[in-house]
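User: We ran a pulldown and think these components assemble together. Before we commit to crystallization trials, I'd like a predicted model of the whole complex to look at. Sequences follow.
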Amino acid sequence: MSAAPSTANITAKCATRPLRAALLGQPNTGKTTLFNRLCGVRARTANLPGTTVESRVGFTRVQGDDLEVMDLPGSYGLHLELPESKLCRDCIEGRIGDCAPDVVILVADATNLARSLRFVVPALRRKLPCVVAITLADEARRKGLSVDAIKLQHKLGCVVCVTSGRTGEGVEAMAIAALRAAKSGFTADDFAQRLALLPAHESEADVAAWSGAAVAESVGGEMAIRADALSEKFDAALTHPVSGGAVFVMVMALLFAAIFWLARFPMDAIGFIFANLGGALHSVLPDGALRDLLVDGVVGGVAGTVVFLPQIALLFFLLSLLEDSGYLARAAFAADRFMRRFGLPGQAFVPLLSSHACALPGIMSTRLIPDPRDRLATILVAPFMSCTARLPVYVLLISLLFVGNPWLAGVAFIGCYATGAVAGLLSALFARRTILRGPSRPMMLELPPYRRPSVRSALWMTMDRSKLFLKNAGTLIVAICVAMWWLSAYPKAAPTAEVTSMRAQAQVLRDSHVLNNIAEAAVLEVQSNALMARQQQLESFAGGIGKIALPIFAPLGFDHQLTVATLTSFLAREVFVSTLTVLNSSGDGSDKRSVIEQLAKGRRSDGTLLFNIPTAAALLVFFTLAMQCLPTLALVRRETGSWKWPLLQFVYMSGLAWGMAFIAHAALSSMGAN
Amino acid sequence: MTDPIPQPSRPRVPLTQLARGQRARLDAGCMSSLPEHDQCLLRAMGVHEHCELRVCKPGAPCIIQVERTKVGLSGPVANQLFVTPCDGTGVG
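Assistant: Here's a predicted model for the assembly, 766 residues in total across the polymer chains.
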């Protein structure tokens, strides 16, 4: 138990940071909807203060004061030995970093109050200022239930507010109560008074009996079990091996179709904006290193990443709607039968699905898997799922491989996702039969009620994730692009004899002042610039690095440019296209062709096309299977508590990727594809 | 004075034998065959000894309702849970 902050301590804290509230509650109690209503656009996904633990943190303005709000992960009980329970316990008891809350907002579901109180009571027995937020008040009313906050307040010994995150009812009053509780501190007398009201012992039987009595006194309406025939029919259909599987496949197909088709329009718009921005900067800025840096390094590099923002935003939005609707829990059961064949539980389905957006939230959500072996197997294979960072590479390579054939391109897209998923599942089976051998734990999962998903909540979640992606693009990716630009721009190569001769010829033609000659001079200049750019690539630092690592990647058909771009993508996959754009820049920033058009025409130092069919296919296979994400490796280290697992993951995935890419390249080359 | 008529003890059956819509009470000690952490998780979700439950979907997964919470249980878990059907409901 932690000591409660005294009023003096709180005053001192307020001088350096706003007062802090932690939202604590069970899953599916409307906690996150309440958080979104409280903080709205002022929320972000971030590490808990002073820690590396990710949580959503936001601010709300209450009566002129800022209140920081942390949305802790949903936990079924503070006493459980599950990672999210331990995290909540450690956080409210001030055992991790500097994130001890000044007040705890305990979230209780009005439609399921007895169970919620069994969670709330043990938390109230900790010496912390608390406010109880009864959520889903609107839903409870529809079910004929009403909660008497005053009666419950007298039972619990702390302020009780009836709220609805969806409608906003009671949310402001709850924030005011939380701020007051945080400001006024919590004395030993306050705690003693509260303890006197609560059950004498913390045993499950005592707490259950006490909670039942509290509900009987304070809730109006019928709390007994009620059958809901329609909901049960849906449950039966969605968890059935045949109909559930069919619905699952259909939902996934619609999800991916929406991502690829709906996102096309904003993607085109973003590509157009960046192309024009590069052109405008090129025409405004004087010739020199600064112009090259801004046009080729920053704008060119960032464009290659930001263009994929619409797809990422759509994926998060749709996943959030699906989760909110209650479907994902049913889908986990539909998936269980299938996943068990690969040694994984049905709960692994959501983390693996989330990994299609990004492996980081996917790996974080493996905390819901109770069995440590199942959890580790899921963590190890999650990066096989095709995350959105792979999309730029898929789009580029598939566009190059299937020019003018959108149907085959679509099939290839599905093939990439399927390859990643199959490799992940087979690797999981391999791991569960070798290094993670042991019995599987059977599945048990709460099935939340079907609800109309909150579009507002999904939008906020999407904005939050998009901001995180843009922040990444604006920091890490810009830094890598600038570094790559410098490595490829220096040392400056001297013009070759051929380039000098072409430039002299162009000058003579221009000086003749004959219209046809001037046009010919322009063509000669473009050709000499392209030759010079290739020479620059070869003699630059980046060219040197590429030549050193080339023996590893040459069997896959890579040249030094592709080798450098692949090496940088081990930091973050999405950097591949932007690095290649920077390396392949002719130095003529006025080029308004799309990234794909530019790279399709890209040349190697020997003048041959950068991408031939076997090389593009080998790259596609390599990127589908390789482990190329530093943040993921760091997260796996944190989640598994050892460097052994991320190292094994890196070596296994990258080795497999190289082997499969080699086979693809050799097979296509032997068939004469070019 | 006559002896009271002995009440037949109610049958104790695995959860999987109940039909849709049947109500039952979870038997004391029936969760002991499950690992300790699974027992704790089930209790935290509201599935504790003596609780009244209703079968929403029999089979695998077995979906039960306890209070207002629906819990999905895989076949192996449901097989290990023994219940006593409530009055007026028989074994399906």
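DSSP finds 30 helices and ten strands in chain A. That may be worth checking against your pulldown data before setting up trials.

User: Thanks, that helps.
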